[in-house]
Automatic annotation (TrEMBL):
InterPro entries registered for this protein in UniProt: ARM-like, ARM-type_fold
Record's protein name: Uncharacterized protein
Superkingdom assignment: Eukaryota
Keywords associated with the record: Membrane, Transmembrane, Transmembrane helix
Transmembrane intervals: 6-26, 47-65
Parts forming coiled coils: none
């Protein structure tokens, strides 16, 4: 009750005075002077009086706002907006407010562009332990809320080196600081080159060491509160904060907390580690997240694999004889999943680095046994691990030097087909089905894999191309069928009568792009439609080149209502719709050109293409996409861009002229 009285006295009084003064100035119904000359100055005097009251109220409110009461209101609302913990959130915000105010008094221009994230970065540069911890806490909190602070940290190599060094501290009191630094380094890891930071691997590897001995000390640390209240005006500020917390409604904070929980869930899926910690595995998970992102760079992969102590720690879960039993608990499953993600990145490294690691895994009987056992799990909780096991086994199967048994490869392929084509089990997640399909696509490119396994499912895969099915599954099915057509002997009549009509129907029914200004969901649908169109065109070209004759293709076109030049018109329309500087549009235009060049071997189609002005449309596309094509040529060594790099649009144009 007393808090409400204080609040009403401090804030309510000035507000009432301002309101009354404004009302009287607007109304000005002071009455008449009834001809009394002594009241002639009454109206101007009252106007002046109310103006003075108004000015006094405004000045008082300004003073309140710039001093503890007003500052406390800003701090309380900011803590709720940013979902900061009470333990240190208020301390940090008060320090930020007082520091900014002091700089403003000294030099108002110095606070231009000042933000809380910049202030937190400045604290990291401090020599004070408390300042460092405060800065790390805040930056980690911002990162968990999906803020991008890379532009503030990456330009300073010394700053990054300090963050990395913090990971290697082993004192029990530094646990929270290591966790916060781990979250920040994970945020930056994709842009970090290990060779530029001496001792980086050693510091990161300390995160993967057994932390059982640290658990006791961590629990002791949890009982200690290292936040300290300041004296003087800062203490007064905290008093006002306590008053406002009791007055302000709790509903707002509860809503923000719920939003914060949702953010935490999203960040968990993105593997941005929570800086609050609380588990013995927390630092291990952070270390694995950092390594996974570092491994996106080939040179980092080489540095990681060359370290004799780090690689065995990464592989430890895979080679453990208790992995299957331990993975039944969520904490251990998270560690295994993180370890598998790092391994998958490392084994895909080009050259000897990836090859040697693939051999090491393939020669580990326990490791292969664990991967196969995980693959056979059917419980929903193990689906993340199933995806990782599929990815790793597929990479091993694609490398002939691993000598993976044919039985293992065929079992893997059967499992992939079983999951991808399953339509009855609701427990199988979309991500698992998509992963099964994509890894199957890669596996079929290996000519040594027995194609008879996948040929039995040819009809089911063809049915997936139907428009009634999920677009993602249709794209993957088209990719799988393309590789089957390229690497397996198929019944040509079956391809002509069942598969080709389904593809032509898909090409014909693809919708035009939605108009500009569509929402994000519309943009996603447009991208998926383009990718599906690309897959259908690519599959058409493979079938045309490898399995059927020109007459068979012409017959299929006629039966699908695309005769008399209608298919040529469709190809031209697709080219014109994709005259844009995007990689997927470049790929689509090239595919249309290649299909056209093949079809022009038949004289009747030559006339159709000339009459429709197809070469002119292709020439226009070439001019628009020439710069992009030059860039793709240099990036063409990457797997996804190989097909786009060649042939050149100019070469296709020559064939059509």
């Amino acid at each position: 009750g007393c808090y409400i009285v204080v609040f009403l006295y401090g804030y309510g009084g000035p507000i009432v005075c301002i309101g009354l003064a404004l009302w009287r100035i607007v109304q000005r119904d002071y009455g008449s002077n009834d001809g009394d000359d002594t009241k002639a100055n009454l109206t101007p005097a009252l106007d002046l009086f109310y103006c003075l009251i108004l000015c006094q109220g405004v000045l008082y409110m300004t003073w309140l706002w710039s001093h503890p009461p007003g500052g406390a209101f800003i701090i309380v609302t900011s803590r709720q907006d940013y979902n900061l913990p009470r333990k240190w959130g208020y301390i940090w915000l008060v320090d930020y407010l007082f520091d900014t105010r002091a700089k403003c008094w000294q030099d108002p221009a110095s606070i231009q562009g000042s933000t809380m994230s910049r202030y937190a970065v400045d604290l990291i540069d401090s020599e004070s332990w408390d300042d460092n911890l405060s800065g790390l806490r805040m930056l980690a909190t911002f990162i968990r809320q999906e803020a991008d602070v890379r532009s503030l940290l990456l330009p300073s190599r010394a700053r990054i080196q300090k963050l990395i060094n913090t990971l290697g501290w082993r004192a029990s009191a530094s646990r929270e600081m290591r966790e916060a630094a781990g979250c920040i380094v994970a945020h930056l890891a994709s842009d970090i080159h290990l060779a530029q930071f001496p001792g980086a691997i050693r510091c990161i590897s300390t995160l993967l060491q057994d932390e059982a001995t640290l658990t006791y000390w961590w629990n002791c640390d949890q009982k200690q509160d290292h936040t300290h209240l300041r004296t003087g005006s800062r203490s007064t500020m905290h008093t006002w904060i306590n008053i406002l917390e009791k007055i302000m409604p709790k509903a707002r904070e509860q809503e923000v907390n719920r939003q914060g929980d949702d953010d935490d869930d999203r960040q968990h899926k993105k593997h941005v580690v929570d800086v609050k910690g609380g588990g013995c595995n927390e630092l291990i998970l952070q270390g694995l997240t950092i390594l996974e992102r570092l491994a996106s760079d080939q040179h980092n992969c080489m540095d990681i694999c060359r370290n004799p102590s780090l690689l065995p720690r990464i592989m430890a879960p895979l080679c453990s004889n208790t992995l299957i039993q331990g993975a039944k608990t969520s904490a251990w499953a998270d560690v295994v999943n993180g370890s598998f993600k790092v391994l998958y990145r490392l084994i895909r490294c080009p050259g000897w680095t990836g090859k040697c690691l693939r051999r090491d895994i393939a020669t580990s009987e326990q490791g292969i046994s664990n991967l196969e056992s995980i693959l056979d799990q059917s419980n929903e909780a193990g689906q993340e691990l199933q995806m990782r096991a599929m990815e790793i086994l597929t990479e091993l199967a694609l490398d002939s030097s691993t000598n993976l048994t044919m039985e293992t490869k065929e079992n893997l392929m059967k499992k992939q087909l079983e999951i991808f084509l399953d339509e009855e089990s609701a427990a199988i997640s979309k991500d698992l089905k998509a992963t099964a399909g994509r890894t199957l696509t890669f596996l079929i490119t290996n000519s040594k894999v027995n194609c008879s396994v996948v040929k039995d499912y040819f009809g089911h895969l063809t049915e997936l191309l139907d428009a009634k099915n999920n677009t993602t599954y249709r794209m993957i099915a088209a990719q799988v069928l393309e590789n089957i057509c390229a690497h397996c002997d198929l019944d040509k009549e079956c391809v002509k009568d069942t598969l080709l009509p389904q593809i032509l129907t898909g090409i014909q029914s693809n919708k035009r792009e939605p108009p500009e200004g569509a929402d994000d969901q519309g943009d996603d649908e447009k991208t998926e439609t383009k990718e599906l169109q690309e897959n259908f065109l690519s599959l058409t070209l493979v079938i045309y080149d490898n399995l059927i004759s020109i007459d068979d293709f012409d017959d299929a076109i006629q039966k699908n209502g695309l005769g008399n030049g209608e298919f040529v018109v469709k190809l031209k329309t697709i080219v014109e719709e994709n005259c844009k500087e995007t990689v997927i549009s470049l790929r689509i235009v090239k595919l249309c050109g290649q299909i056209a060049a093949t079809m022009m071997m038949r004289s009747q189609y030559t006339e159709h293409f000339k009459n429709q002005g197809f070469a002119e449309s292709l020439s226009k596309a070439k001019k628009i996409m020439s710069n992009l094509e030059s860039c793709v040529l240099f990036a063409g060594t990457e797997l996804r861009l190989k097909k786009i790099a060649t042939p050149l649009l100019s070469e296709i144009e020559k064939e059509l002229n």
